[in-house]
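Write out the bound-state structure for magnesium ion.
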Amino acid sequence: MFFAKLRNMLKRGMFKPEYVPTASLQAPLSQDDLYRLIADNTNEIVRFVDQSGIMLYVSPSHERILGHPPESLVGLPCTENLHKDDWSKIRNYLALAKYNPELPPIECRLQHRDGSWVLFEGRVVSFFNNRMQEDNFLFIAREITDRKRAEEAMAESEAKYRLIAENSLDLIRIVDQHDTILYASPSHETVLGYTPESLIGTRGGANLHPDDYAAAEQNFIKLLETKTPTIDEHRYRHKDGHYVDLEVQCIPLLSDSGEIDRVILVGRDISERKRTEELLREAEKLSVIGELAAGIAHEIRNPLTSIKGFIQLLREQSSGNQLYYSITLDELERINFIVSELLMLAKPQVKNYKPKNVCEIIDNVITLLDSQAIMNNVQITTHFEPDLPLIVCEENHLKQVFINVLKNGIEAIHHGGQITISVVKTDGEELLITFVDSGCGIPEELACKLGDPFYTTKDKGTGLGLMVSKKIIQDHKGRLEITSKLHVGTTVKIYLPIEHHPES
Ligand code: ADP
Ligand code: MG
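---
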């Protein structure tokens, strides 16, 4: 509408330099005067150019924005003070605009009187002159230097933040108030196995552990209500099915009106920390039990020696009840065995650490248990990697570990089977000793109980074997891991560091 009016006015020569709106301030204002008034007072720059490219009208705003008084430009070619690189752009725009009046504005640069370049965003509108030649045009443009600068600064800071997000090891995601993921950092692929693209548009809480879902949802609702950041711990399902422990910080982003626009979530994988905490707890448990055990064991051992001595004496003096004496002595022997196991748990006494060949120790242990293995129809095979380094260790203690583990294996095989023992050197400068048995296996729900004191499933078990073994391996700065499958068998892995300074 506005352009149509302007076109009319231009046709009638209203924007010719000699035209002066004599009646401009007299009421009532004519339509023509009104439009001239608008062009003269607008903040945009307005130029009317004739078919030969000469500027016939230049709005007064040129002086304020570009430092050029309008009179200094009128009569000059329209390319005057237009950046050379923008000439063809304007020409092309003009050609296209003839057929497409909805064309979005273009950007061009005009030179300020002081030599600097000022950025504009504008439209070029062509129209017929009174000889029906469509070569005249109107150029209307708005200065956008500040806006452009702000946009560039914004893009720059956005690029900076994106760079941080893209390269961060933390999981960074942006969700809307419905928890729909709008952005996910590439670290999602390394930590959780999902590509960022596959997550966008999905619900953020979709892969949470079912037990953690309610608490996380509650937290999110609280964040939406209070608009204050929260911190939360929960388990998130990795693409391959296992759960990763995450510590997640939720930061609300408020819009200008103070409403929550987006929520930024920064998650950190704390599985390792959790594992360390668990190990510390375990170590502490072992050491407390060890101290207790050592105290009790000492108290029991002394009276036990006297009782045993006297029973043996009584047996020699008495002719009857030999069976009872024998049973009593067997039971005392068992108490003695349990007590010595308990003593193993005590704080490290003076130990005799020496470099030893682990394979030789294992061979000795096999010899020791061979008869029990044959009785149970168990076949033991070994695979030792050649040229393995020696391990600085307390030989008798390691022997005890291997006896415990091998005995457990034999006892788990009820109708004949296999036990394979292998020793290899790992890349991490450790020896890995693996015991694989084809025994009954351990039900999953009991796996967490392994190594707890007195946990046993055997009539004659003590439930101390694994606990003592763990403690000994720990003293050697190694680790013991058990994996098992019910009715298939159990694998015990013992890692021992090659370079290790005992008790350091
Ligand atoms: P104990 O042998 O005296 O029962 P341990 O601490 O050596 O005590 O073992 C505890 C329990 O762990 C055993 O009773 C058994 O249920 C289970 N266990 C240990 N090793 C194995 C194995 N190789 N196969 C099946 N179960 C095992
Ligand atoms: Mg045992």
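---
Residues 404, 408-409, 412, 437, 439-442, 450, 455-458, 461-467, 490 surround adenosine-5'-diphosphate (ligand 1) (CB under 6 Å).
The two ends are 89 Å apart (CA to CA).
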